[in-house]
Design a protein that fits this description.
Helix content: 25-40%
Number of helices: 16
Radius of gyration: 24 Å
Shape: globular
Low-confidence stretches: 1-21
Amino acid sequence: MLTLVILFFIMTPIEAFAAPAKADLTYVSPPASDSAGQVTSPVEYPRDLYPEIEPFIEGHLDVGDGHSLAYDVSGNPDGVPCVFLHGGPGGGVSPRSRRFFDPSFYKIIIFDQRGSGKSVPNAADDLKGSLVENTTPKLVQDIDALRRHLKIDKWGLVLGGSWGTTLALAYAQEHPDDVDALLLRGVFLFTPDEVDYLFCNGGTYRQNPQAWEAYCQYIQDTSSDWDREQTNLLGAYWDRLTSDDEAVRKASAAAFVGYELSISKTYVDPAVIEECLGTPSILIPFAVMEVHYMLNGGFLRRGQLLDNAYRMAKHKVAICHGRGDYVCQPHAAWRLSQVLKKLGCDYVDLEFVSGAGHSDSEPGLVDAMYRQWNAAFDAGYASALGKTIITLHPPAISHMLKEVNANASVVCTDATQVVDTLTYVIGGTLPEPRDGASFVPIAERLGAGNPNP
């Protein structure tokens, strides 16, 4: 009996969001012009987020050290378990985080990391308590504690963006047998050059001079010793973020987060910046945790994530990175993909997305993440079942699906080709030539001795 799988890759529309709020924009650089209106009417891509979905479980998990993590579970209760690791550190999750996953297929788990979002304590409410044992090794332990609490044998998919990619890699390397696959957006390996470029030596000045100067100007305007503090801008921000003066804490957080948000998207939406800067429970953890981790090298040994990549040899890894990402530089994604390929990782694919920056709200990155993972998982699942694979997709996305096509028996670009293939496989009948000519074997058409038959 013939059993095969046909993978269809088709196209659907997109949507966007924005929610204005009051905020301190004193040290936030203005966005570049957008005469095409891409902020309010972004270009449509083939794929968008899945529809909104409500959780069927919500709770808090006590992980020790005074921390209780807020989490929820949605999607298919019997589906493949997946977990979303938010950025920052300190960025927190939102209902939108659930929408990266197919709710009919996945059991979706999202949670706020220590000190952020709905987890207790939030840095905006208890700064000192939020920083207790707030380190990468502890966050890795938290992910596994959540897995065990929910009685999940293994994560089918770990999705991380920005700082979430750092945490996803750290977790996969510490618990390689508890992860099947990773989908990474905007890779950050926490190497010294990445930290210095973004926060210390003005690397972003080359493409975003206004944003960098505003980031520095806040410290200069509030400094009694600029000669010293300009040599350690992260330390200067830390002093203000941990000040006893609440107004100073909020102003420094607004300057710090405003800087990063102003360089995170190709088309910057001021309303999104205002919402974040105007919401202390989002603003304070974002700034405090990010500086806390940057000052401490991510609580990772220098080069750790590349040095330990050998532990991921059995994982599938799909990577999407904006070509215009000024927060996490594209070379980090390239470094990671090349190391994993040299180590013989089961599946590695990297897609650089034209016209996309850093944020996971970039339409091009949403589209890429959808295609990358669904294609890779479908092909891997079919292959594991020993099924013959036929892929069907437009030629425009052949590059993105190159790893899938490599595992397919037949690659088709229209439905007629699928029908012809099945007719031949089932009945042994070759299709009639479409141009009316008689069928001639390829060797005869090319001629004897042709070097490229």
